[in-house]
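WARN no homologs supplied; continuing
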Amino acid sequence: MPVIEEKNEKRKLLESIKLPIVFLLVLWAIHIFQFVFGLRWGFLGVYPRAIFGLKGILTAPFIHGDFTHLLNNSIPFFVLSTMTLYFYRTVAIRSISLIYLLTGFAVWLIARETFHIGLSGVVFGLFGFVLGNGIFRRNIRSIVLALIVFLLYSGMLAGLFPVEEGVSWESHAAGFVIGLFTAYYYKEELEAEEIKHSPWEEELEPSNRPYFLPRDVFDKTIVERLREQEEPPANDASSANI
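OK structure emitted
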């Protein structure tokens, strides 16, 4: 059994990293293509409150200003998305999709009128999602995961405020809030490992184990037991009537 469980865990881990790796390969291929041919695709970002800027909800996360920008987003995205896909399999795809779309839409509604590009809004959304699960699910696993993520990426919280020129803090703030909302929205859809099993639950099937006392020892009074001993067995009474 341990060997089978180990194989299942390895398969589960491989499945969890597959999607993040493919997504990041696409991002890096796009940026290398831009770099090699000297292209600037910033116009594919979200431009708030303009119809032509709506396309950026889908395309902005694929566009980055430089390699540093892309690298800074790639590492936390890989860690957080893999963690989400591994530990929250039931809601992972729906949660990532919701964070992706709602973050872009929120930026379109509230951000400054400039092109907003990059994957950081989704990264902050995943960050908020894992932290939110620790708050809303309140089981040991979710709390531990939230603490690990907080220790690793607590420095990201500074990005929620307009402290650096040229950085879309609106994307960060929108993503973080959407991530918390998503965690709350799916908090009731528990994973199999999160469902509590009481050690005091009765067995579903009767056990064949021998018992020192009859199972109904406390269900009958002494008088009732004495009467049972005095009454003749039912089959003896029937044979006397033949």
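Residues 2-37 form the longest helix (36 residues).
OK
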